[in-house]
Specification:
401 residues; L-amino peptidase D-ALA esterase/amidase; single chain; Ubiquitin-like (UB roll); alpha+beta; 6-stranded mixed β-sheet; 2 domains
Length: 401
């Protein structure tokens, strides 16, 4: 029985008590655009994190493993335009250099965390970061400063991504969850697929943090794809300071699901050059694992994604992708729906001119569902993807400029 209520509020990562954040310009982006963000916590906490599955993880992730994992931290510094990835030992030394300068300026900072996003394979200009430290106001808190932080972590993102919730328990206790994320390219369902920072004042045990974060990431950030590429810098952080004194596991899980699903679908909706958000629902699979495999194959298929771009209800590409995914499937048991239009049903082609027209109208929408029923078992899973068109090629043909 539901024993809580959830309400959307403003404030992003600053919505929970005890969290401060802001964004400033260090000169990484042109024209004075915001390009460095921070999150500061009055009460340090042990962060829970999930990182990229890419073998060549970036220097900030290596630094976290070496210097911060398992320790209390109260500060995150995020820069854009440079991923500090594939920069060797020098990349980690660069982090130590600017974080040392940060602690000199702000003695209250404890075990700071570095996070970066941008071009791979280029040394970070640490002096630009150090020179911007006088601009950091660790007392910055509220809706506007949270917005500036979410703006500062953007790269090719067309819009900032943030959310905050107020969760009221039946006994009158209240806690909050806030978050911000960035991501529009190099998005593939293999871990977190972007940068995401979640804050909460819930009194959540460390073991619950790990359990719930890994559980929810499976159906959110691990279930999205823009282009099938996994970044070197993918990072998902959860910071829980416990200052509200309130916690309910079911309520927190539901709030976390809302936060992560919203940010995950925002990332797909903002996919570089994207015009559509499509849910690939695979049901009737032999197992959930097989449903995941087929659904991810569909969300990563370039042929399927280009058909989405052209509003082409080419169900043959969908069927072919399922057949090539390696899951148990049969022509006589498979059914395919574009929206609510059945185009193939258990070996029978339903794709006449009338249904093609209806399916085309569905695909013209900004968001719709493609359902594939394998007709074999109870396995079900959904992934989220966008179309792939000319603008994606244009953006990524000269990303370093």
């Amino acid at each position: 029985m539901k024993t809580f209520d959830i309400f959307p509020i403003k404030g992003g990562v600053c919505a929970p008590s005890g969290f401060f954040a802001d964004g400033v310009s260090a000169g990484f982006k042109p024209n004075g655009a915001l390009d460095v963000a921070f999150i500061y916590m009055q009460k340090p906490c042990i962060p829970t994190a999930i990182f990229t599955s890419n073998t060549f993880c970036a220097s900030p992730i290596k630094h976290f493993y070496q210097e911060v994992q398992g320790k209390e931290s109260n500060f995150v510094l995020i820069n854009t335009k440079n991923a500090n990835a594939l920069t060797g030992k020098e990349g980690i030394e660069d982090i130590k250099l600017y974080l040392s300068a940060l602690k000199e300026r702000f003695p209250q900072v404890q075990n700071p965390i570095a996070s970066s996003t941008g071009v791979i394979g280029v040394r970070l200009d640490t002096q630009k970061l150090i020179d911007c430290f006088p601009l950091l106001d660790l007392n910055a808190r509220g809706e506007e400063s949270a917005k500036r932080a979410s703006e500062a972590i953007r790269t090719t993102d067309l819009f900032a991504k943030e959310i905050a919730l107020r969760i009221e328990l039946e006994n009158g206790e209240v806690f909050h969850i806030g978050a911000m994320a960035k991501g529009a390219g190099m998005i593939e369902p293999s871990m977190a697929t972007m940068l995401c920072f979640i804050t909460t004042d819930a009194l959540i045990p460390q073991e619950d943090q790990k359990e719930l974060l890994h559980k929810v990431v499976k159906t959110t950030f691990n279930a999205i794809s823009v282009d099938g590429d996994t970044s070197t810098n993918d990072s998902l952080f959860l910071f829980a300071n416990g200052v509200s004194g309130a916690y309910d596991k079911e309520a927190f899980e539901r709030g976390l699901e809302i936060v992560m699903k919203k940010l995950a679908t925002d990332i797909v909706r903002d996919g570089e050059g994207a015009s559509k958000l499509v849910r690939f629902r695979v049901m009737g699979a032999k197992s959930e694992e097989e449903a995941i495999k087929a659904s991810k194959a569909l969300s990563n298929s370039l042929l399927v994604k280009t058909a989405l771009f052209g509003c082409d209800p080419n169900w043959g590409r969908i069927a072919s992708t399922i057949g090539a995914s390696g899951v148990e499937a049969s022509e006589e048991k498979l059914s395919i729906f574009i929206g609510n239009v059945c185009v193939y049903e258990r070996g029978v082609i339903c794709f006449d001119s009338e249904r093609e027209g209806r399916a085309y109208e569905v695909m013209k929408k900004e968001s719709f569902v493609i359902t594939c029923d394998l007709g074999i078992g109870e396995g079900e899973f959904s992934t989220y993807a966008c179309d792939l068109g000319h603008k994606y090629v244009q953006i990524n043909s000269d990303y370093r400029s």
